[in-house]
Write a structure and sequence with these properties.
Number of domains: 1
CATH superfamily: START domain
Mean pLDDT: 93
Order of helices and strands: HHHEEEEEHHEEEEEEEH
Shape: globular
Number of strands: 12
Low-confidence stretches: none
Number of helices: 6
Radius of gyration: 19 Å
CATH architecture: 2-Layer Sandwich
Bound molecules: N-((E,2S,3R)-1,3-dihydroxyoctadec-4-EN-2-yl)hexanamide
Largest sheet: 10 strands, mixed
Distance between the termini: 18 Å
Structural class: alpha+beta
Oligomer: single chain
Amino acid sequence: KERLMKARQRSESTPSTPLIQHRLWPEIKQVSEEQLRYALLGVEEGVWTLFAQEGEMRMYKREEEVDGMVCDPLKAVHTIRGVTAHEITHYFFHPDYRMDWEFTVDNMTVLERVSEDCIVFHQIHKRVWPATQRDSLYWSHIRQVHPPPDEGLHDSWIVCNQSTEHPEAPTSGKWLRVNLTVCMVAQTQIVPPPPEGELITRDNLQCKIIYCSVVNPGGWAPASVLRAVYKREYPRFLKRFTQYVIDQCQDKPILF
Ligand code: 6CM
């Protein structure tokens, strides 16, 4: 039974064939694996500063500037109940739901559907006065984490977003293009386990979430305004997004 389960997990975490054959695959593989390692590293004291905390949610940042532009790495950890890692990453990845929870975006376009597990997006972000409006162009990849997770975890999934280029959306004079590296790692725990012989219900699900982001604003933006916007918007985003997934899932069968 154990061997069968391992084989199933191995095949589920294999990227799709169209993705492996795509020009972006070597980069997607390398960045996603690197992001997963980075997300799981934790938040070392003295390196990361806690800037927001509410319930189980903790948000940390490191203040960093590149060529005078604020590029503060952000790491957030959260635990929610009643949903699985697959459900969390499914709603984060799929374009159908993006505009339901993503309030910092004015417009989203799917530029290329590479495969069921990879999409190239173009987004126009809401303008923040007095700065120029920004856009972003990135590939987004979803996968179950392989090898299977540690003891105590049922399964783990990741979505990784990374800036890229695409002939259908060259940079224009209209927007400044941000450069982003974002990942969301989610891990299902069965807590408390159901009584012997009973099926798992949503009352037995707990999901640990790690969200990491590094955004280069791509051109001049006042540092104090940018940091104030991030301090307000990132906690808003994570609270809104996780509540959205809980609401979407409550009356649906569990998606493992
Ligand atoms: O990860 C998040 N959303 C994903 C889907 O949209 C995706 C997008 C990341 C965008 C990252 C932020 C771009 C910020 C652009 C505005 C810069 C304003 C500069 C002017 C300031 C004076 O990964 C959730 C992103 C939540 C962001 C708060």
